[in-house]
Fold this sequence. Notes:
Blueprint: E1 12-15, E2 28-35, E3 38-43, E4 70-71, E5 75-86, E6 97-101, E7 104-107, E8 120-132, H1 136-142, E9 146-149, H2 164-170
Parallel strand pairs: 4-8
Antiparallel strand pairs: 1-2, 1-9, 2-3, 3-8, 5-7, 5-8, 6-7
Amino acid sequence: MIPGMPPTKGRLLVATPPLEDANFDRTVVFVLEHHDEGAIGVVINRPSYEALDEPLDRWIELQSSPSSVFSGGPVEESALIALAETSAPLAEEADYLSPIVGTIASADLTADPALVAGEVTGVRVFRGYAGWGPGQLEVEIEAGAWLVLDSEPGDVFSPDPDELWRTVLRRQPGRLAWLADAPDDLSSN
């Protein structure tokens, strides 16, 4: 992380241990939007036991493993957000797919999945999202609650999301990688 570097669309927010808000302890958030009005992202390392029900069960065959609905964050937990990994970067918005960064796009869950199946290699569905008002995320970053790190291909669709927090930290240079080995309960250190 470069000090003063703003979180921008397509980057990761990695919670530092211990983050006081239990909603975000050991989370990795993929930033979907960040501008003057605030920021929005989804927690990409919290799969749930929930499966897609009708009428969204049509999307199950496109879901990346683990094929469950992920807990995207504590805001609007009734909202579903779908991210798709496309076979090639989208230059502009396509039918039912909107580019975010690289090969990551948002997918319109109201569409027939057959319309996007030829363009995507995987889909992940999130219930809820993480949101910050104007300046709120910047204050939390300055306070040391979040590390702003570059994402790598495969982070959003990791087949092992439970280990993603440690994986992202381990690949960082120098002492930052040491955080990956921080115990879950810091008092037992």
